[in-house]
Prior knowledge:
Layout: H1 3-16, H2 20-37, H3 44-51, H4 55-62, H5 65-76, H6 89-101, H7 106-120, H8 122-149, H9 160-173, H10 186-199
Helix pairs in contact: 2-3, 2-5, 2-7, 4-5, 5-8, 6-8, 6-10, 7-8, 8-9
DNA-binding region: 43-62
InterPro entries: Homeodomain-like_sf, HTH-type_TetR-like_transc_reg, HTH_TetR, Tet_transcr_reg_TetR-rel_C_sf, TetR_C
Organism: Streptomyces ficellus
Amino acid sequence: MSTQAATADRTAARRSRISPERELELYGAVLDLLREGGYDAVTMEGVAARTKCGKATLYRQWKTKSQLVTAALDKSRCPLFTGIDTGSLAGDLRAAAVAAGGRRGRDTELMEAVGQAYLRHPDLRRALRETVITPEVAALDAMLARGVERGEIAADNPAIAFVAPGFLGVLRVEGLFEDRFGDEDALPAYVEAVILPALGIAPSGP
C-alpha cells in the first residue's frame, strides 16, 4: 500500500471513529426503537435518522443490525447475578431473585421486544447468547458450584441443570403471567417454592 493510501485510510478511520458519548446516544436510539416496535422496527436507516448519524458510519462500526442491537443491549445491561456471593447457596439464590425482581419494567420490555426475533434470527440468537445470556448463566452456575463445594447440595442433584433455565425462563415469560408474576416478590417466591425444594434446601419460613 502506498504512503498516500495509508494516510487516507488513517484519515477515514479517524472520521468514522465514534466517541463514547455518541455511542451511548446511538445505543439509546436502538433501545427506544426496540421498545416502541420490537426488533423489526429497528433499522440502520431509522437509527441514523433519529441520531443524525450517517448510515455508512453505522455499517462500518457494527456491520449488521443484529450486531448493533446486541451491542446496545449489552451496553445497557447491568449484570443481574455476577458478583453475588452471600456465603450460602440459599442466600445467593435469594439475592439473585431479589436482584432480578428489581429489574422489571423497562428491562422486561426489551426482552419481550427481542424474544420473537431471537427465535427467527440465528445471527441475533448467537450474539445475544454470547454477550447477554451466557454471563448470567455462568454466574448462576458458579453459585451452584460453590454450593456443591461447601457440601450444601449433592453434585449429582438433577435439579442443578435446571436452575439457570428456570430463572431465565421465568424472567422471559413473566409478562404472559401477570396474574402470577405481577410484582417484585414473584421471583423470590418462585425460589422458595420451587428451586430450593428441588435442590433439597429447606425454604425460609413464612
